[in-house]
Each structure stands twice: as C-alpha cells, then as structure tokens.
Amino acid sequence: MVDIAKNDKDMKARERAILMLGDAKDDEMLDMLSDIYPKTDDVRLKQRIIFAIGQNKSDKAIYKLIEIARKEEDVDLRKHLVFLISQSKNEEAIKFLKEIIEK
Questions:
Q1: What is the C-alpha to C-alpha distance for residues 33 and 45, in angstroms, rounded to an integer?
Q2: Counting runs of H as helices and runs of E as strands, what totals does the chain give?
Q3: Strand, coil or helix: 89
Q4: Cα separation, 103 vs 101, whole angstroms
Q5: How many angstroms separate the CA atoms of 34 and 21, rounded?
Q6: Fewer C-beta within 10 Å: the chain N or C terminus?
Q7: Residue 87's domain is classified under what CATH number?
Q8: What is residue 23's predicted lDDT score, i.e. its pLDDT?
Q9: Of 76, 2, 82, which is closest to residue 34 (Cα–Cα)?
C-alpha cells in the first residue's frame, strides 16, 4: 500500500492508497504521509494527504498539520490546513492560530 501511495503512476490508485493508509491512524502512517506530502506537486493528492492526517486527531497529527501549513504556499491548501488545525484544542494548535492572527 505504501509503495502505491508513493509511486503509482495512476493518481486515483495513489489517492485510494493514501486514504487507506489514513485509516490506520497510527504514528507510522503519519510519518509516511508526511514524507509523501512535500514530494508531490499534485494538489488533489495533497488534499487527500491532509484529509488522511486530519482524520487521526492525535497530537502528533496536529503537529504534522502545523508543520505542513508552515511550509505550504498554496492558499487554498493552507486554508484547509488552518481549518483542520482550528478543530483541535491542542496548545500548539492554539499557538499556531494566534501566530496567524497576529501576522
């Protein structure tokens, strides 16, 4: 499944693999998805990765979303990331949101 998510030429197969990895909801999956994210330019695939990470709800998932949001240049992807982060009561999420507001 990981190989399909990372390398398959069929984008739909990659999207399905990413969503299936997201169902695992564990730290290893978060690391794999976070590793794939910066290696793709496909916006739809990035949306799927964000969604899969966001489904986890763990502190580590929030940290990964914040890390991605800090680097993401696409405005629509950043908006989606900020929305997911705002759903958390995690202290790092709150700090990150305050940073954005104060900019």
A1: 11
A2: 7, 0
A3: coil
A4: 6
A5: 12
A6: C
A7: 1.25.10.10
A8: 85
A9: 2
